[in-house]
UniProtKB/TrEMBL annotation:
Protein name: PA domain-containing protein
Organism field: Triticum turgidum subsp. durum (Durum wheat)
Chief location: membrane
Annotated GO CC locations: endomembrane system; membrane
Pfam families: PA, VSR_TRX
Length: 379
């Protein structure tokens, strides 16, 4: 089943959009097959939940309901075809007022085969205004696809439907297979630093609001997620400098900027690197025990329980959180290794290697960055 995975991408993009500005979006097309005057392909953004015929097509008649046009309430009409063999009905729904998932759920309950959500403004698809556009309440039970179409196409379809034309639309997923193994793989490039102003706050808001969805999708096998952390290395000639000593671990091999941009107070860059390393190790150990989603709990709980402001951004505080999640502290410590040692840390080495672009995506240099199926979406 591909649907929920695609929805994950949409949710990700929507959330990411809210977090960090504009993102590139991959679009699909819908095809209008009648009336003659509207025949053609139109761009759309498909946000499928539980689509049963992924890789196939779905053809249906377009219905524009008389009321409840935003589908925020349950419908008191049925969109089910009355005879067997009747073509399915796609319900045209206006964007806004409630969650995307609420609309889909209400339409599904009323027997719709798909929803076409008409954008409320002329704008590039898909720019959801804020996380409130998505919602996760009925996510697990939604099986019909949701498609966002442009305001212009929506208005044309409405006019035709209200005129009594037979409006027929073909949804086509054959060209939009995002990944051969039908699972969305994504990376989230982040940072444990919590004192960098609005940018850090936004990252944390993203983690807080996306955690639940990410965990459900991961548990159901629709996504495969990997968190990543950026570090840089200190040029060899400077490894003994004050800057590198305060910003780096393992003798200049892995560094992060000082959180306060002041080497003499508060936490140093190296504290951030060590915490980032803990987070990667939490992911590794959790993933090895088949529970990668515990990373979200760790990052979330650590941010709340161990903030820099309260001087709790420490190994001790991290250990408490790790233990509270039932993760093996010995394994984590082993993974973290000795930050003072003059040697490579295989985990951070792999992180640095992963920073370099490969295939279609470029190097990761801006945080936060999402890489979905190896394409980069960044703010
Ligand atoms: C989804 O469906 C299951 C089984 O019918 C039900 O137990 C669950 O409460 C539903 N969840 C939501 C959010 O509607
Ligand atoms: C996480 O576990 C999965 C399944 O065991 C594996 O394929 C994947 O490579 C692991 N990821 C990392 C970063 O270790």
């Amino acid at each position: 089943m591909m649907g929920p995975a695609w929805w994950a991408v949409l949710v990700l993009l929507a959330m990411a959009d809210a977090v960090a500005g504009r993102f590139v979006v991959e679009k699909n097309s819908v095809q209008v097959t009648s009336p003659e005057s509207l025949k053609g392909k139109y761009e759309c953004a498909i946000g499928n939940f539980g689509l049963p015929q992924y890789g196939g097509t779905l053809q249906g008649w377009v219905v524009y309901p008389k009321d409840n046009r935003q589908a925020c309430k349950e419908f008191d009409v049925s969109f089910k075809g009355h005879k067997s063999g009747a073509r399915p009905n796609f319900v045209l729904i206006d964007r806004g007022e409630c969650f995307f998932t609420t609309k889909a759920w209400n339409a599904q309950l009323a027997g719709a085969a798909a929803i076409l959500v008409v954008d409320s403004k002329d704008e590039p698809l898909i720019t959801m205004d804020n996380p409130e556009d998505t919602g996760t309440k009925h996510l697990e039970n939604i099986t019909i696809p949701s498609v966002l179409i442009t305001k212009k196409l929506g208005e044309d379809l409405k006019k035709s439907a209200e005129n009594g034309d037979m409006v027929s639309v073909l949804l086509d997923w054959r060209e939009s297979l995002p990944h051969p193994d039908e699972r969305v793989e994504y990376e989230f490039w982040t940072n444990s630093n919590d004192e960098c102003g609005p940018k850090c706050d936004m990252q944390m808001d993203f983690v807080k609001s996306f955690r639940g969805t990410a965990q459900v999708l991961e548990q159901k096998g629709y996504t495969q997620f990997t968190p990543h952390y950026i570090t840089w290395y200190c040029p060899e000639a400077f490894t003994v400098s004050k800057q590198c000593k305060s910003q780096c671990i393992n003798h200049g091999r892995y560094c992060a900027p000082d959180p306060e941009q002041d080497f003499s107070k508060g936490y140093d860059g190296k504290d951030v690197v060590v915490q980032n390393l803990h987070q990667v190790c939490v992911f590794k150990v959790a993933n090895d025990t088949g529970k990668p989603w515990l990373w979200w709990d760790y990052v979330h709980d650590f941010a709340i329980r161990c903030p820099m402001k309260e001087k709790k951004y420490t190994h001790e505080c991290a250990s408490h959180v790790i233990k509270s999640l039932g993760l093996d502290m010995d394994k984590i410590n082993k993974c973290v290794g000795d930050p003072e040692a003059d040697e490579e840390n295989p985990i951070l080495k792999a992180e640095q290697d992963a920073q370099i672009g490969h295939g279609k995506r470029g190097d990761v240099t801006i945080l936060p960055t999402l890489v979905v199926n190896n394409r980069q979406y960044r703010g």
